[in-house]
Request: fold
Amino acid sequence: MTDKIIISGFADEIDAQLDVQLKVVKGLGMDHICLRAADGKGIADYTLEEFAQSILPRLNAAGVKVSSLGSPIGKIDIGDDEAYARQLEQLDTLCRICKLLDCRYIRVFSFWMPKGENPDDYTDTVLEKLSGFARVAEQYDVILIHENEKAIYGDTGRRCKVILEQLASPHFKAAFDFANFVQCGEDPAACWELLKEYVVYIHIKDAVAGKNENVLCGTGDGKIAQILTQAIREEGYEGFLTLEPHLVLFDTFQSLETGDASKVIFENKAKNGAEGFTMQYRALVDILNTI
Reply:
């Protein structure tokens, strides 16, 4: 959009194949994507060599840069130490991929919590393990951006702030997701006030309170227009607004949800991923034009 506000997007919501993703985003005039999956394979499952040979040349040929890596790092049970050790290795590779891409950000999470237990009882363990992630990122001068996902420790604004305050790391910041806060029963505007000093990245996803359904941005309870107006006009937010439409059941969607994906996307709101992504892009542009 401008040098200060750049629209990116989780392009795997368009199609599993990277070439299709690139064609659609270029057609919209976009020159950045968030890489979560390409050619049907999650970004954390690529080796450095595979990425350099298969993905990087096509990005360069298309003139498309990467705003962030949409990794699954931290989407593991808090008590699974074997999975944590594997993810430390994956994160090291992801940081190396970032350096190839001249990309600053890797999206992370703060661990699945045991059902029926109080997440606050796990604060020390969460902080210890996230510190391990941050140390890896520091080695490569990469910034981990924590997404406020459902059912993880940092699902509420309060616990997100605990993480960000306690880690106090220049290599661990916040990715603000409007819809996830709605789906956790939180007020996105209150969460913005709580976290805005830590936010370096924003996901454009909306949801309806109570129903938990994802909807076109600006039509749900995420207060997207209100918060973006404040952030851009009054607080000088600069950086990425990354489309995460969740309007169509795309190939890898069920793997992102802890429950039934049909409880989040009740029915496809577009004929395919490309149309849903385009709808979200145009809705965001309309909001930005009013700002």
About this structure: The longest strand covers residues 172-177. The CA atoms of residues 107 and 145 lie 5 Å apart. The chain has a mean pLDDT of 93.
